[in-house]
Amino acid sequence: MTDIDRTVVVLGATGQQGGSVAAALRADGWAVRAVVRDPSGHRARSLSAAGVETVRGDLSDPESLRAAFTDAHGVFSVQPNTGQAGAVVTNEDEVRFGTTVADIAERCGVAHLVYSSTVAAGPTPTGVAHLDTKSRIEAHVRNLDIASTIIRPATFMETLVLPGMGLDRGRMSFLMRPDQTMQFIAVRDIGRIAAAVFGSPERYAGHTEEIAGDALTGKGLAGHLAQAVGRPISYGRLPTTLLEQDEALGGSAALVDSGRLVGRTNLDALRAEFPFLLRFDRWLAGPGARLLAEALRPTDTGIALR
After folding, report:
1. 191 DSSP 8-state letter
2. How many Cα neighbours within 13 Å face the side chain of 259?
3. From edge to edge, which strands make up the β-sheet containing 155-156?
């Protein structure tokens, strides 16, 4: 392929997922074009220093997307959502952004679109608005005349060590009950899987792939954390009062109980396909070490999931 044919446009490259995809694509020899709001910003400049082309664009500006997608081989699509802390978008914004990206990629003749969804997505609604947006975008993507792959990541390992989760006080709370098993994935590995998908379109086009790197109970999660920090860590599910007060958290906990959000991918088969997948203990000792150190610093903030 020519250099133009080897270009993948990455949305959200200044964030977690898009950043991991941009880094993995560069490592695999792709030319990467990142759509950023402000090319002079710190994160955009860091991308440029890593060999990523940055172009000014905005999800709410279709013309800027058309310009960015011109002559690109692929597009990696991920959108901001209301489930993120500090989100300034609505659920309808997310759906509009995701469908617009797919439509423009089709019109620009992009050869391969990779859309990042959620493990909870599916044909029936979950009842959690910021998860059901992904199902709506998925359905739109599948109806277009473009080769596409949908990846459905499990819950991010990074979410488990957010500041304010209680680790600084020797405890940990999350969505599952102590003996419930839930699958997780390192954001780094989402990028590596996306890069592998772009590298083998004949294998992955038209597929929906659920992806994860490890499966842990609440007690197992606490055990790994205790070993990493060298002191006991207790685990308990998020308080019932919080789950009752916060509609999204309560709905997510219900989806864990129903199995919809726990993740059900065959980890042995997935590791055979992607040998680089990190288990939680290895992630804590590697890419997650800095985040864990930050989570252990004393803080007065409460639960930081949203």
Report:
1. H
2. 2
3. 155-156, 181-185, 214-217
Instruction: Note whether 126 and 132 are within 8 A (CB).
Output: yes
Give Cα 295 to chain centroid, integer Å. 20
Q: Cα(240)–Cα(259) distance, rounded to whole angstroms?
A: 19
3-class DSSP state of 255 = helix
Structure-block tokens of residue 17: 């997922």
User: Residue type for 83, please?
Assistant: G
pLDDT for the residue 306: 45
* Domain edges within the chain: 7-155+186-211
- pLDDT computed for residue 207 by the predictor: 97
CA 87 to chain centroid, in Å, comes to 15
From 225, 120, 104, select the one nearest 162 (Cα to Cα).
225
Closest CA to 282 of 238, 216, 193: 216
Which has the closest alpha carbon to 273: 205, 215, 189?
Answer: 189
Sign of the torsion formed by the C-alpha atoms of 64, 151, 16 and 81: positive
Residue pLDDT, tens place only, 241-272: 999 999 999 999 999 999 999 999 999 999 99
Which ranges of 61-186 does DSSP label H, i.e. alpha helix? 62-69, 91-107, 129-142
Contact predicate 116/98, CB 8 Å? no
Q: For strand 112-116 and strand 171-174, is the pairing parallel, antiparallel, or unpaired?
A: unpaired
What is the C-alpha separation between 41 and 45, in angstroms, rounded? Answer: 6
- How high is the pLDDT of residue 301? 55
Q: Under CATH, what is the fold of the domain 7-155+186-211? A: Rossmann fold (3.40.50)
* Antiparallel, parallel or unpaired: β 7-11 and 171-174: unpaired
The residue assigned the tokens 């989570």 is 295
Helix or strand run (H / E) with residue 160: none
Name residues whose C-beta falls within 8 Å of residue 115's C-beta, 6 or more positions apart in sequence: 77, 78, 98, 102, 137, 138, 141, 148, 149, 150, 151
pLDDT-flagged residues of the chain (< 50): 1-4, 306
Q: One-letter amino acid identity for 131?
A: L
